[in-house]
What does this fold into?
Amino acid sequence: MALVLTRQDVIQVLSMKDCMVAVENAFVELVKGTADLPLRIPIKSPDGLSLYMPAYLREMKALACKVVAVYKDNPSRFNLPTTIGKVLLQNPETGEVICIMDGGYLTAVRTGAASGVATKYLAIDGRELTVGVFGAGVQAQTQLWAVTEARKVKHALVFDKDESASRKFADTMGAKLGIDIGIAKSAEEALETEIIITATSSPTPLFNGSLVKPGTHINGIGSHTPNARELDTEIIKRSKFIGDSRDACFKEAGDIMIPLQEGAITETHFYAELGEIITKKLPGRLSDDEITLFKSNGLAIQDAATAKLVYDKALEMGVGREIDL
Ligand SMILES: NC(=O)c1ccc[n+]([C@@H]2O[C@H](COP(=O)([O-])OP(=O)(O)OC[C@H]3O[C@@H](n4cnc5c(N)ncnc54)[C@H](O)[C@@H]3O)[C@@H](O)[C@H]2O)c1
It folds into this structure.
């Protein structure tokens, strides 16, 4: 028997707060060496990219594989989200698939959760902060949600190249999170904030990195291929660079790979993996003037940890449908 969980089921049982705890533990397992995380397998088709993402977290007993697709024209062509996927969760003792769940909402929440954890460890602490959000799509929503779990936020600014998307985001997320969200007229205006989120489908830099204020923390989550980047060379040079995984950053993240190829930085510019900051192997922010940057490529350990959390919660709450496959 396998438990089948629809998108609505996942929404019912998954909270950002719980997900941040699970994802933080997953990053700790990665650093401790108790996680198996092969690099994901990409397959390109004419209209998009499919990624096959397996992981095993031994302490959490979470063994899972996600099939996720990123098709950037899906919203306009098919009225479907850009990012869609499903997760298979296995019993690590028997190998049996015990749950099949929708992966769209799960991906958005686990991606938000990683940035929430990074914000908790790296952003300026002790006072209310403002947030600049680049992109007003699906991921941007859970990014802002997670940041508000990590820090007190009263005001945010959103900047999307599609102004109607910005307006919708400001209305919906302002009401959901109970914060004031304004629409930035330009990328520069959105930089007048203390935490910056980049969650767009843009393959080229979103702003001039020399304009970012000292003390800013950036969560860069959008681009994830060697030739695409949301962040320019200047902001990479000015930042303390923390990645979700060293391996993924040097193989998938144009944000750091392009400045490396240009000779603007060397590999030592990669300061730490997020897990090394969480476990205090390396210190995070050292002053209120430092610019910290978390580059998220999206790791299968985030999916495995979140899928296990969702499965356990669904069993506890009696949610989902058992099917004999
Ligand atoms: N790091 C991770 O773990 C992770 C996980 C899921 C998705 N992603 C990536 O995040 C990105 C966003 O995904 P989504 O599902 O939110 O997509 P989406 O299509 O819902 O939203 C993307 C938004 O970016 C806007 N945009 C594009 N170029 C822009 C620019 N130059 N300036 C301002 N806005 C711009 C678009 O108008 C759109 O509203 C994608 O690249 C996706 O692959 C990363």
User: Anything to note?
Assistant: The pocket of nicotinamide-adenine-dinucleotide is lined by residues 70, 75, 82-83, 107, 111, 134-140, 159-162, 165, 199-202, 206, 221-222, 224, 296-298 (CB under 6 Å). The longest strand covers residues 48-57. The chain is about 40% helix and 25% strand.
